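Hi R.,

Here's the chain you asked about this morning:
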Amino acid sequence: MAKKAERSSRARSLSRRLAMQALYQWQMTQQSSAELLNQYAQDEGYPEVDSEYFAEVLRGVTGDGEALDLALGELIDRPVAQLDPIEHAVLLIGVYELAHRTEVPFRVVINEGVELAKKFGATDGHKFVNAVLDRAARSMRAAEHAAATKTKTARA
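And here is the predicted structure, written out as tokens:
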């Protein structure tokens, strides 16, 4: 069972990485989610990806991009249009997951976003991603965030 959970976790991480790449491309080309899904399904690493999760995130973000950008605009200190495309893609995934994938703990969403930003983003972009996703979690998952903070404080 641990192997399956490990594979599932790794597959989700790979899905997020591939979604970040596809969303970067989407920002540059405005290709449809169907075109991007077809293109990325040809990627040699695609069999390792949680393909359903990848498709859901890609379709969800491209379909709800304006609303997600409005939510992001409330969380950042600059216009969304000024965001680095990598950080923007990572933040879109994070905000989408916080809003629509409540079974994924907010700390996982933040950690995955930070790791993507460290690997693909600007030098200190991960710090910005961390702060924005933490603000989003406080707002979008207030009860979960408060419970986690209370538990952390009780252990200290």
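One quick note: The radius of gyration is 15 Å.

Cheers,
M.
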